[in-house]
Amino acid sequence: MSYAYLFKYIIIGDTGVGKSCLLLQFTDKRFQPVHDLTIGVEFGARMITIDGKQIKLQIWDTAGQEAFRSITRSYYRGAAGALLVYDITRRETFNHLTTWLEDARQHSNSNMVIMLIGNKSDLESRREVKKEEGEAFAREHGLVFMETSAKTAANVEEAFINTAKEIYEKIQEGVFDINNEANGIKIGPQHSPTNPSLPGAGGQGSSQGGSCC
Amino acid sequence: MLNRFKNAVIGAVGGFETNGLALNQDLHQRSSLSPKFPYARPHFLELDWEQMQISADHRLRPIIHPSQSLAFNTGYAECINAGKSKWNEDQAVLQQGVLTKLELVENSPPVKYDIPYSYYGIFDGHAGVGAALCAANQLHHILHEKLVDAQDDIWQDFIGKTVSKPRDLLIIGALESGFREMDQLIAEDRNKYQSAGGCTALVALFILGKLYVANAGDSRAVICSTNKIIPMSMDFTPENERDRIRQLAEEQPALLGKEFTFREYICQPKSVDLGKPIMYRDAHMKGWAYKTLQTEDLKMPVITGQGKRSRVMGTIGVTRGFGDHDLLAVHQKTPIKPFLSPHPEVQVHKLIDVTEKDVLVMGTDGLWDVVSCSKAAEVIGKQFDLFSQKERYVSAATCLVGSARGILVNDHSWQLKNEKPASVDDISVFVIPLFPYRDAYLEFKSKYTDVDL
């Protein structure tokens, strides 16, 4: 399936805040209650429509574990959008946001759109971080903010799509140089998905398009 | 002469890929041929087309690992080179097989057995992806046939019957003959498919309580544990194979063409020194002697350079593996294949004594060029503290690849944490826990002790 643009996203934040669950909910519309540790980085993709244009989101889901930090840090480069996630039921994940943000700002391109996500909004009874605190942090650091639940899917679509909208607007305003792939944006191939430069690429394009992974 | 020598070495390091291909005599004719196997990543990674494209990003070099657990939670990870070739020229394979027999004999108990085995392969390609893809797709089938040929003897030996040769020799023989056949197959395909280039081959075979590691090339297998490191392979580089190659050259000087010599000199002979004494040694000499420098001594030694930069005929830096049938010396156009060998060295390790922390690490030179065995053991050791059984081997593989790949600094150089240059090569690593193989073997053995023996 062809697309007008491809946006590259990266999801970051402490371990166990629900990064992989947000991705799974967005790409597969399902929730995985067991915490499977992410090793290094994993990938997901989904097509969305903005302003009548097909946009492919390619999402790099990173491990939150300190052990993988030096590896995952290198993936900030070339991302157009980042979802910075904390867990509203664990204050320490909120306290670590500054470190994550510094890391992201230091290693990414300056135009990267960052969306702050307070996840697990379904666990209201165990809430440790008030919504207003998230809003205040976002305001202070110039981020977009949203509370989500990967379990109930509340605001998950919006989180990914609003980030895409903001990137799209920046493209319209000419902020992003779309010809430089290092910005995490690629203009889509308008025709067949098969890549003629792939050695012997016969029939390999079938798995592309729609949601994958 | 010296300039030409320098150029040859630089050519070998910098432009090997293009040179190797361009030197094919009938490239023109063969360029229209299709590859035998389409480019792919290891089957167990289950990458779709999109993910395969992502995996080939030379600027980000994402470390790819299986998304589903492999047998015994075996770890694997890989990443692509920093731009020396469009595709990742490493390949990896994991296969489980069974040697099975059910023979009903009248008036006597049936002969019945099922011998399970596990096969791991790592192939590091050069001058293209073809040979490594052939090995990744075919070598395990060839090896299976070789094992089937010998399975009755292997079984008889296992159950304690007298056989003409012990099973170690039969399994080593299966590996050795399998490697040779793989190379022949690539040779036979030369005019049918696109030029395949060449590849190294490192295979680990777990069967009947033992680990057999067969190596032809400069990938490396090592058993790492808390307090010990057991090398399971040696690197076949021009430097390490100096004796074999020079002796072959001395016996068959025609293979050297007009411009190479099997002699080794203490320093590069120069024409201004003609008539003066120079220290040298012939192919079979251990020591050194003096001779008078003559015109014939001004030829280029068949082995040049040292360590990672050592080359056969100034061209190739690895002396064993598959393919390279059309490879010619960069400048002299002398065929190099006669000096290369598909023959593996096979090492055997008994699994009965392994401990819970023992792992077999198999990696291409992309790993070992910058990560020492002790550093690898250290990285793996940390995973035991941090992660559960399920994750520790795949995280170990990921961290090993990460510690060889390093990070991109100032958009142009890949650096390690200590700011030394990181590996810009393709990097592939298996981390295989050995203890489960020991357990599986004990269980297998008890089953057959109860039923059949």
TrEMBL record, chain A:
SUPFAM superfamilies: P-loop containing nucleoside triphosphate hydrolases. One of its GO terms (molecular function) is GTP binding. PROSITE patterns: RAB, RAS, RHO. GO terms for cellular component: Golgi apparatus. Its main location: membrane. Keywords: ER-Golgi transport, Golgi apparatus, GTP-binding, Lipoprotein, Membrane, Nucleotide-binding, Prenylation, Protein transport, Transport. One of its GO terms (biological process) is vesicle-mediated transport. InterPro entries: P-loop_NTPase, Rab_GTPases_membrane_traffic, Small_GTP-bd, Small_GTPase. Pfam families: Ras. Residues 200-213 have a biased composition (Gly residues). It comes from the Eukaryota. It is found in: Endomembrane system; Golgi apparatus. Residues 186-213 are annotated as: Disordered. Coiled coil: none annotated. It is a lipid-anchor. Belongs to the small GTPase superfamily. Rab family. This is Ras-related protein Rab-2. It comes from Agrilus planipennis.
From TrEMBL, chain B:
The keyword Metal-binding applies. Keywords: Hydrolase, Metal-binding, Protein phosphatase. The keyword Aminoacyl-tRNA synthetase does not apply. Pfam families: PP2C. This is Protein phosphatase 1H. PANTHER family: GM14138P, PROTEIN PHOSPHATASE 2C. Belongs to the PP2C family. Residues 75-434 form the PPM-type phosphatase domain. It comes from Agrilus planipennis (Emerald ash borer). SMART domains: PP2Cc. One of its GO terms (molecular function) is [pyruvate dehydrogenase (acetyl-transferring)]-phosphatase activity. One of its GO terms (cellular component) is mitochondrion. InterPro entries: PP2C (IPR015655), PP2C_BS (IPR000222), PPM-type-like_dom_sf (IPR036457), PPM-type_phosphatase-like_dom (IPR001932).
